[in-house]
Amino acid sequence: MKSPFKYPADGMTARQPFPAGTAGSENFRIPGLVTLDDGTLVATADVRWDSESDGGGMDLIVSRSTDGGETWHYTFPAYLGDNGDRYSPSSSTLMDPLMITDGRKLWLFADIFPAGYSLTTACTDHAFSDLRTGFDSEGRLLLTADGENYDHCLSDGKIFKDGKALSGITVDGSFDIYENGGYKGNLFFADAPFRAFPASYICMQTSEDGGKSWSGFSLVPVKEEGKKFTVIGPGRGIVTSRGELMFSAYDGENVYLVFSKDGGKSWKKITSPFAGGESQPVELPNGNIRLMVRTGGINQICYIDFVRTENGLQPGELVKTGVLNFSQCMVSALRVTRGEKEYLLICCPSDHTGGDWGGRFNGKVYIFLWVKTVRWCLRTQCSSTTASLPIPV
User: Fold this and answer.
1) How many other C-beta atoms are found inside a 10 Å radius of the C-beta of residue 328?
2) CA-CA 20 to 30 A from 234: which of 126, 206, 251, 391?
3) Which are the contacts of 21, defined by CB distance < 8 A and separation ≥ 6?
4) Tens-place pLDDT, residues 186-240
5) 37: phi > 0 → left, psi -120 to 50 → alpha, else beta; which?
6) What's this model's pTM, rounded to 2 decimal places?
7) Helix (H) or strand (E) holding 195
8) Cα–Cα distance between 92 and 124 in angstroms, integer?
9) Rounded to 5, what percent of the chain is helix, strand, coil?
10) Which helix (H) or strand (E) holds 71?
Protein backbone atom coordinates (compact mmCIF):
# COMPACT_ATOMS: atom_id res chain seq x y z
CA MET A 1 0.00 0.00 0.00
CA LYS A 2 2.09 2.85 -1.26
CA SER A 3 1.71 6.53 -0.54
CA PRO A 4 2.39 7.84 -4.10
CA PHE A 5 3.45 11.30 -2.94
CA LYS A 6 6.51 10.02 -1.10
CA TYR A 7 7.59 6.66 -2.55
CA PRO A 8 10.61 6.57 -4.90
CA ALA A 9 9.68 5.75 -8.48
CA ASP A 10 10.00 2.24 -9.85
CA GLY A 11 12.79 1.65 -12.38
CA MET A 12 14.89 -0.77 -14.40
CA THR A 13 18.54 -1.87 -14.33
CA ALA A 14 20.65 -4.14 -16.54
CA ARG A 15 22.46 -7.33 -15.48
CA GLN A 16 22.44 -6.40 -11.79
CA PRO A 17 19.40 -5.88 -9.57
CA PHE A 18 20.94 -3.05 -7.51
CA PRO A 19 23.98 -1.40 -9.12
CA ALA A 20 25.31 1.70 -7.35
CA GLY A 21 23.12 4.67 -8.11
CA THR A 22 19.87 2.70 -8.33
CA ALA A 23 17.04 4.95 -7.10
CA GLY A 24 19.71 7.41 -5.98
CA SER A 25 21.37 5.10 -3.47
CA GLU A 26 25.08 4.30 -3.44
CA ASN A 27 24.89 1.41 -0.97
CA PHE A 28 22.97 -1.86 -0.97
CA ARG A 29 23.60 -4.55 1.61
CA ILE A 30 22.09 -7.76 3.01
CA PRO A 31 21.00 -9.31 -0.31
CA GLY A 32 18.51 -12.12 -0.76
CA LEU A 33 17.37 -14.03 -3.83
CA VAL A 34 14.59 -16.54 -4.56
CA THR A 35 13.35 -18.21 -7.76
CA LEU A 36 9.67 -18.67 -8.57
CA ASP A 37 8.20 -21.67 -10.36
CA ASP A 38 7.99 -19.74 -13.64
CA GLY A 39 11.71 -18.89 -13.48
CA THR A 40 11.27 -15.31 -12.25
CA LEU A 41 14.18 -14.16 -10.09
CA VAL A 42 13.23 -11.94 -7.15
CA ALA A 43 15.99 -10.14 -5.25
CA THR A 44 15.88 -7.92 -2.19
CA ALA A 45 18.33 -5.76 -0.23
CA ASP A 46 18.72 -2.90 2.22
CA VAL A 47 18.77 0.54 0.63
CA ARG A 48 21.43 2.29 2.74
CA TRP A 49 21.48 5.51 0.70
CA ASP A 50 24.69 7.40 1.57
CA SER A 51 25.81 5.23 4.51
CA GLU A 52 26.68 1.67 5.47
CA SER A 53 25.35 1.97 9.03
CA ASP A 54 23.00 -0.54 10.65
CA GLY A 55 20.24 1.98 11.26
CA GLY A 56 19.30 5.57 10.68
CA GLY A 57 16.98 5.72 7.71
CA MET A 58 17.35 2.56 5.63
CA ASP A 59 14.59 1.26 3.39
CA LEU A 60 13.81 -1.92 1.43
CA ILE A 61 13.98 -2.58 -2.29
CA VAL A 62 12.89 -5.56 -4.41
CA SER A 63 13.93 -6.23 -8.00
CA ARG A 64 12.60 -8.92 -10.34
CA SER A 65 13.88 -10.44 -13.56
CA THR A 66 12.02 -12.66 -16.02
CA ASP A 67 14.91 -13.09 -18.49
CA GLY A 68 17.51 -14.84 -16.38
CA GLY A 69 19.02 -11.68 -14.90
CA GLU A 70 19.59 -9.63 -18.04
CA THR A 71 17.07 -6.94 -17.07
CA TRP A 72 15.68 -6.13 -13.63
CA HIS A 73 12.62 -4.13 -12.59
CA TYR A 74 12.79 -2.68 -9.10
CA THR A 75 10.23 -1.30 -6.70
CA PHE A 76 10.08 -0.22 -3.06
CA PRO A 77 7.70 -2.55 -1.22
CA ALA A 78 8.44 -0.71 2.03
CA TYR A 79 9.59 2.87 2.44
CA LEU A 80 9.31 5.23 5.40
CA GLY A 81 11.06 8.30 4.03
CA ASP A 82 11.55 10.41 7.16
CA ASN A 83 15.30 10.67 6.47
CA GLY A 84 15.19 12.47 3.11
CA ASP A 85 16.99 9.48 1.51
CA ARG A 86 20.14 10.01 3.53
CA TYR A 87 21.60 8.70 6.76
CA SER A 88 20.20 10.27 9.90
CA PRO A 89 20.60 8.83 13.43
CA SER A 90 17.15 10.21 14.27
CA SER A 91 15.29 8.39 11.49
CA SER A 92 13.21 5.24 11.39
CA THR A 93 14.71 2.06 9.98
CA LEU A 94 13.69 -0.83 7.74
CA MET A 95 16.48 -3.38 7.42
CA ASP A 96 17.59 -7.00 7.05
CA PRO A 97 15.04 -8.24 4.48
CA LEU A 98 14.11 -11.90 4.33
CA MET A 99 12.05 -13.61 1.63
CA ILE A 100 10.14 -16.89 1.60
CA THR A 101 8.38 -18.38 -1.42
CA ASP A 102 6.39 -21.49 -2.23
CA GLY A 103 7.17 -20.87 -5.89
CA ARG A 104 4.15 -18.66 -6.46
CA LYS A 105 3.47 -16.43 -3.46
CA LEU A 106 6.14 -14.28 -1.80
CA TRP A 107 6.46 -13.38 1.87
CA LEU A 108 8.80 -10.49 2.70
CA PHE A 109 9.99 -9.83 6.26
CA ALA A 110 12.18 -7.12 7.75
CA ASP A 111 13.14 -5.48 11.01
CA ILE A 112 11.37 -2.17 11.55
CA PHE A 113 12.57 0.30 14.20
CA PRO A 114 10.96 3.54 15.42
CA ALA A 115 12.79 6.77 14.63
CA GLY A 116 16.12 7.13 16.39
CA TYR A 117 16.33 3.54 17.66
CA SER A 118 18.45 0.50 16.80
CA LEU A 119 20.40 -2.24 18.56
CA THR A 120 23.24 0.12 19.54
CA THR A 121 23.92 3.83 19.72
CA ALA A 122 26.73 3.43 17.16
CA CYS A 123 24.18 4.14 14.42
CA THR A 124 21.24 5.90 16.05
CA ASP A 125 20.39 8.27 18.88
CA HIS A 126 19.07 5.50 21.13
CA ALA A 127 19.57 1.78 21.71
CA PHE A 128 16.64 -0.43 22.68
CA SER A 129 16.43 -0.65 26.46
CA ASP A 130 12.76 -1.06 27.41
CA LEU A 131 12.09 -4.74 28.07
CA ARG A 132 8.39 -4.67 27.18
CA THR A 133 7.17 -6.20 23.91
CA GLY A 134 5.50 -3.13 22.42
CA PHE A 135 2.10 -4.89 22.33
CA ASP A 136 -0.77 -4.94 24.82
CA SER A 137 -2.33 -8.12 26.23
CA GLU A 138 -4.50 -8.47 23.12
CA GLY A 139 -1.57 -8.19 20.72
CA ARG A 140 -2.29 -4.60 19.65
CA LEU A 141 0.55 -2.18 18.94
CA LEU A 142 1.02 0.29 21.81
CA LEU A 143 1.08 4.00 20.91
CA THR A 144 1.72 7.30 22.64
CA ALA A 145 0.33 10.74 21.96
CA ASP A 146 2.41 12.61 24.53
CA GLY A 147 5.75 10.76 24.41
CA GLU A 148 5.35 9.35 27.91
CA ASN A 149 2.15 7.36 28.30
CA TYR A 150 1.51 4.44 25.96
CA ASP A 151 -2.22 4.51 26.57
CA HIS A 152 -3.31 4.23 22.93
CA CYS A 153 -3.26 1.16 20.67
CA LEU A 154 -3.69 0.24 17.01
CA SER A 155 -6.37 -2.20 15.87
CA ASP A 156 -7.79 -2.80 12.38
CA GLY A 157 -6.53 0.53 11.05
CA LYS A 158 -7.94 2.58 13.93
CA ILE A 159 -6.39 4.11 17.03
CA PHE A 160 -8.08 3.38 20.34
CA LYS A 161 -7.90 4.91 23.81
CA ASP A 162 -9.86 3.59 26.77
CA GLY A 163 -11.62 1.15 24.47
CA LYS A 164 -12.93 3.82 22.10
CA ALA A 165 -11.74 4.53 18.54
CA LEU A 166 -10.57 8.08 17.94
CA SER A 167 -12.92 9.88 15.56
CA GLY A 168 -11.59 10.67 12.09
CA ILE A 169 -8.20 8.98 12.67
CA THR A 170 -7.16 6.06 10.44
CA VAL A 171 -3.88 4.21 9.85
CA ASP A 172 -3.13 2.51 6.53
CA GLY A 173 -1.06 -0.58 5.71
CA SER A 174 2.18 1.42 5.70
CA PHE A 175 1.49 2.80 9.22
CA ASP A 176 0.71 6.21 7.72
CA ILE A 177 -1.70 8.27 9.83
CA TYR A 178 -4.63 10.20 8.34
CA GLU A 179 -7.01 12.60 10.01
CA ASN A 180 -10.21 13.07 8.02
CA GLY A 181 -8.28 12.01 4.93
CA GLY A 182 -5.30 14.30 5.47
CA TYR A 183 -1.83 12.82 5.92
CA LYS A 184 -0.38 13.37 9.43
CA GLY A 185 2.80 11.26 9.45
CA ASN A 186 3.73 7.71 10.30
CA LEU A 187 3.56 5.73 13.54
CA PHE A 188 7.32 5.15 13.31
CA PHE A 189 8.26 8.84 12.83
CA ALA A 190 9.58 11.00 15.66
CA ASP A 191 7.24 13.93 14.91
CA ALA A 192 4.00 11.98 14.33
CA PRO A 193 0.94 12.74 16.49
CA PHE A 194 0.87 9.06 17.53
CA ARG A 195 4.06 7.03 17.86
CA ALA A 196 4.87 3.35 18.24
CA PHE A 197 6.39 2.03 21.45
CA PRO A 198 10.24 2.10 21.22
CA ALA A 199 10.82 -1.60 20.59
CA SER A 200 12.18 -3.72 17.76
CA TYR A 201 9.50 -5.14 15.49
CA ILE A 202 9.36 -7.67 12.67
CA CYS A 203 7.08 -6.71 9.79
CA MET A 204 5.68 -8.86 6.98
CA GLN A 205 4.33 -8.12 3.50
CA THR A 206 3.12 -10.47 0.77
CA SER A 207 3.01 -10.48 -3.02
CA GLU A 208 0.72 -12.55 -5.22
CA ASP A 209 2.11 -11.31 -8.56
CA GLY A 210 5.78 -12.22 -8.44
CA GLY A 211 6.94 -9.11 -6.59
CA LYS A 212 5.29 -6.48 -8.80
CA SER A 213 3.07 -5.24 -5.98
CA TRP A 214 2.98 -5.79 -2.24
CA SER A 215 0.45 -5.83 0.57
CA GLY A 216 0.54 -3.52 3.54
CA PHE A 217 2.43 -4.38 6.72
CA SER A 218 1.49 -6.83 9.39
CA LEU A 219 3.60 -7.33 12.51
CA VAL A 220 4.96 -10.71 13.63
CA PRO A 221 4.89 -10.73 17.47
CA VAL A 222 8.07 -12.65 18.28
CA LYS A 223 9.75 -10.47 20.94
CA GLU A 224 9.37 -11.70 24.51
CA GLU A 225 8.93 -9.67 27.67
CA GLY A 226 12.33 -9.12 29.25
CA LYS A 227 14.31 -8.92 26.01
CA LYS A 228 15.85 -5.70 24.72
CA PHE A 229 15.28 -6.68 21.09
CA THR A 230 14.46 -9.55 18.77
CA VAL A 231 15.50 -9.34 15.11
CA ILE A 232 15.52 -11.68 12.13
CA GLY A 233 18.19 -13.66 10.30
CA PRO A 234 17.95 -12.04 6.83
CA GLY A 235 18.29 -13.51 3.35
CA ARG A 236 15.77 -16.28 2.84
CA GLY A 237 13.53 -18.56 4.81
CA ILE A 238 11.92 -21.81 3.72
CA VAL A 239 8.62 -23.54 3.10
CA THR A 240 8.98 -27.06 4.51
CA SER A 241 7.64 -30.26 2.97
CA ARG A 242 4.77 -29.94 5.46
CA GLY A 243 3.88 -26.47 4.22
CA GLU A 244 5.30 -24.56 7.20
CA LEU A 245 6.80 -21.11 6.69
CA MET A 246 10.09 -20.83 8.61
CA PHE A 247 12.78 -18.28 9.36
CA SER A 248 15.19 -17.52 12.18
CA ALA A 249 15.41 -14.75 14.77
CA TYR A 250 17.73 -13.89 17.64
CA ASP A 251 17.96 -11.58 20.65
CA GLY A 252 21.62 -11.66 21.65
CA GLU A 253 20.99 -14.49 24.12
CA ASN A 254 19.11 -17.13 22.17
CA VAL A 255 18.43 -18.19 18.59
CA TYR A 256 14.86 -18.93 17.54
CA LEU A 257 13.20 -20.96 14.82
CA VAL A 258 10.04 -19.02 13.90
CA PHE A 259 7.29 -20.85 12.01
CA SER A 260 3.72 -20.60 10.78
CA LYS A 261 1.38 -23.45 9.88
CA ASP A 262 -1.34 -21.24 8.43
CA GLY A 263 0.42 -19.29 5.71
CA GLY A 264 1.60 -16.46 7.95
CA LYS A 265 -1.62 -15.68 9.83
CA SER A 266 -0.15 -16.77 13.16
CA TRP A 267 3.37 -17.50 14.34
CA LYS A 268 5.15 -19.57 16.97
CA LYS A 269 8.80 -19.97 17.85
CA ILE A 270 11.12 -22.61 19.24
CA THR A 271 13.99 -21.42 21.40
CA SER A 272 17.49 -22.82 21.24
CA PRO A 273 19.50 -22.37 24.44
CA PHE A 274 22.59 -21.42 22.45
CA ALA A 275 23.62 -17.84 21.85
CA GLY A 276 24.06 -16.86 18.23
CA GLY A 277 23.22 -14.25 15.66
CA GLU A 278 21.83 -14.18 12.15
CA SER A 279 21.00 -17.73 11.07
CA GLN A 280 19.40 -19.48 8.13
CA PRO A 281 17.26 -22.65 8.09
CA VAL A 282 17.28 -25.54 5.64
CA GLU A 283 15.12 -28.66 5.72
CA LEU A 284 17.07 -31.91 5.73
CA PRO A 285 15.95 -34.91 3.68
CA ASN A 286 14.73 -36.59 6.89
CA GLY A 287 12.41 -33.67 7.71
CA ASN A 288 14.53 -32.15 10.47
CA ILE A 289 15.45 -28.46 10.28
CA ARG A 290 19.09 -27.42 10.29
CA LEU A 291 19.78 -23.86 11.40
CA MET A 292 23.13 -22.57 10.14
CA VAL A 293 24.17 -20.22 12.94
CA ARG A 294 26.38 -17.15 13.09
CA THR A 295 28.55 -17.79 16.15
CA GLY A 296 31.00 -14.98 16.86
CA GLY A 297 34.47 -16.07 17.92
CA ILE A 298 34.24 -19.75 16.99
CA ASN A 299 35.31 -19.21 13.37
CA GLN A 300 33.82 -22.46 12.15
CA ILE A 301 30.67 -23.27 10.20
CA CYS A 302 28.22 -24.26 12.95
CA TYR A 303 24.65 -25.47 13.08
CA ILE A 304 21.81 -26.55 15.35
CA ASP A 305 19.44 -29.32 14.29
CA PHE A 306 15.78 -29.07 15.27
CA VAL A 307 14.60 -32.69 15.34
CA ARG A 308 10.99 -33.67 14.69
CA THR A 309 9.46 -35.60 17.58
CA GLU A 310 5.96 -36.45 18.78
CA ASN A 311 6.11 -33.20 20.74
CA GLY A 312 7.18 -31.09 17.77
CA LEU A 313 10.58 -29.82 16.75
CA GLN A 314 13.20 -30.05 19.50
CA PRO A 315 16.52 -28.13 19.35
CA GLY A 316 19.72 -30.14 19.62
CA GLU A 317 23.30 -29.22 20.48
CA LEU A 318 25.44 -26.66 18.72
CA VAL A 319 27.60 -28.58 16.25
CA LYS A 320 30.99 -27.28 15.13
CA THR A 321 31.91 -28.70 11.73
CA GLY A 322 35.61 -27.83 11.90
CA VAL A 323 35.31 -26.02 8.56
CA LEU A 324 36.90 -22.58 8.96
CA ASN A 325 35.01 -19.41 8.21
CA PHE A 326 34.72 -15.95 9.71
CA SER A 327 31.95 -16.45 12.25
CA GLN A 328 31.17 -12.74 12.71
CA CYS A 329 29.27 -12.90 9.41
CA MET A 330 26.08 -14.65 8.45
CA VAL A 331 26.21 -17.97 6.59
CA SER A 332 23.97 -18.45 3.55
CA ALA A 333 22.58 -21.95 3.04
CA LEU A 334 20.74 -23.63 0.18
CA ARG A 335 19.61 -27.23 -0.26
CA VAL A 336 20.01 -28.54 -3.80
CA THR A 337 18.81 -31.86 -5.25
CA ARG A 338 20.55 -33.38 -8.29
CA GLY A 339 19.15 -36.74 -9.28
CA GLU A 340 19.27 -38.98 -6.22
CA LYS A 341 21.88 -36.87 -4.48
CA GLU A 342 21.21 -34.13 -1.96
CA TYR A 343 23.62 -31.25 -1.41
CA LEU A 344 23.85 -28.35 0.98
CA LEU A 345 25.59 -25.26 -0.39
CA ILE A 346 27.11 -22.99 2.25
CA CYS A 347 28.41 -19.55 1.27
CA CYS A 348 30.46 -17.50 3.71
CA PRO A 349 33.72 -15.52 4.05
CA SER A 350 36.59 -17.91 4.72
CA ASP A 351 39.07 -15.35 6.05
CA HIS A 352 39.05 -15.66 9.86
CA THR A 353 42.03 -13.36 10.50
CA GLY A 354 40.13 -10.09 10.79
CA GLY A 355 40.71 -6.85 8.93
CA ASP A 356 38.96 -3.60 8.02
CA TRP A 357 35.76 -5.55 7.47
CA GLY A 358 36.42 -7.96 10.32
CA GLY A 359 37.45 -10.95 8.22
CA ARG A 360 34.70 -10.64 5.61
CA PHE A 361 36.99 -11.67 2.76
CA ASN A 362 37.67 -14.62 0.46
CA GLY A 363 34.12 -15.80 0.01
CA LYS A 364 33.78 -19.53 -0.62
CA VAL A 365 31.00 -21.92 -1.44
CA TYR A 366 31.27 -25.18 0.49
CA ILE A 367 29.44 -28.19 -0.92
CA PHE A 368 28.20 -30.73 1.62
CA LEU A 369 26.83 -34.11 0.50
CA TRP A 370 24.01 -35.79 2.41
CA VAL A 371 25.00 -39.23 3.72
CA LYS A 372 21.78 -40.91 4.79
CA THR A 373 23.08 -42.75 7.80
CA VAL A 374 25.39 -39.99 9.01
CA ARG A 375 24.99 -36.29 8.22
CA TRP A 376 25.92 -33.59 5.74
CA CYS A 377 29.62 -34.16 5.00
CA LEU A 378 31.99 -31.71 3.33
CA ARG A 379 32.82 -32.98 -0.13
CA THR A 380 34.66 -30.14 -1.82
CA GLN A 381 34.90 -26.39 -1.94
CA CYS A 382 35.30 -23.78 -4.64
CA SER A 383 36.12 -20.11 -4.76
CA SER A 384 33.30 -17.64 -5.17
CA THR A 385 33.38 -13.85 -5.37
CA THR A 386 29.72 -13.41 -4.48
CA ALA A 387 26.85 -15.22 -2.81
CA SER A 388 23.51 -15.08 -4.61
CA LEU A 389 23.90 -11.55 -5.94
CA PRO A 390 26.71 -9.44 -7.40
CA ILE A 391 27.05 -7.58 -4.10
CA PRO A 392 30.03 -7.91 -1.71
CA VAL A 393 29.48 -10.16 1.30
Assistant:
1) 19
2) 126
3) none
4) 999 999 999 999 999 999 999 999 999 999 999 999 999 999 999 999 999 999 9
5) alpha
6) 0.91
7) strand 195-196
8) 9
9) 0, 45, 55
10) strand 71-78
